[in-house]
Amino acid sequence: MSQIFAITNQKGGVGKTTTAINLPASLVAMKRRVLVVDLDPQGNATMGSGIDKSDLNLSAYDVLTGKCDCNEAILHSEEAGYDVLPANGDLTAAEVELIELKMKEHRLQYALAEVKKNYDYIFIDCPPSLNMLTVNALCAAQKILIPMQCEYYALEGLAALLDTISRIQKVINPSLEVGGLLRTMYDPRNSLTNDVSEQLFEHFGDKVFSAVIPRNVRLAEAPSYGLPALVYDRQSSGAKAYLALAGELVRRVEGDKASTDTALETV
Ligand code: ADP
Ligand code: MG
């Protein structure tokens, strides 16, 4: 059974796309079958997976507006090892066109229903706003993964996001749950980071991943080569942190046995 995660935070620059590239690449290293859905018109997850957004025959736009089937638009990234439903600027138009369409909140959910049997994990990289594209992601997903920086306003932004989530739960997707909070660009030497981190644990307990993603220049460089950090520099602290996160996610989703088996396989 596939698990569908929406990687969401309406704040930009918190590491959503970096997570949408590097967590899947780590799961591929653990022999999981993964699809990355790029739902941001900026197409950063597409480019960062080594797929040229200016050279797409079909994209998430065509899928959402019913111009093609999902499997026709999906591409395989040789570099990253996962499949991608790519996006580019066309997706901006989808937001407007969706409003006219029937079942506008459910378009992605129905599209993924066709292909989800092919994957163990599907990750949706959301745009930095709570618009109709994000609503489609929250409607299609079982779980939300929230990357966040441990800074002063982070908790305030989180409150707005949790409010949206609870409205989506009430109206369209009652089974949606928070799958985890991920602390990104983490600097343990910063006392504010530690304060915010503590508050997160107080409010969200074990929803907070123990794995943290440090600030690491390799994570910022890798997308310009169209590669996940794991391929660009396997030894980097960023690549290792995303591997640890993947291990933790697999334990949460599949239970302890599955992840021990995987660890033994990869030794
Ligand atoms: P979002 O998708 O939430 O807008 P991105 O993943 O695009 O955020 O990250 C914003 C910027 O920060 C990008 O330039 C990215 O390369 C950089 N970045 C993200 N995570 C890290 C990290 N852990 N260490 C260093 N740079 C990072
Ligand atoms: Mg992004």
Automatic annotation (TrEMBL):
CDD domains given in the database record: ParAB_family
Lineage top rank: taxon: Bacteria
Domain AAA per the UniProt entry, residue ranges: 3-178
InterPro entries: AAA_dom (IPR025669), DNA_Partitioning_ATPase (IPR050678), P-loop_NTPase (IPR027417)
Pfam family, one: AAA_31
SUPFAM superfamilies in the record: P-loop containing nucleoside triphosphate hydrolases (SSF52540)
Name this protein carries in UniProt: ParA family protein
Native organism: Reinekea marina
Species lineage: Bacteria, Pseudomonadati, Pseudomonadota, Gammaproteobacteria, Oceanospirillales
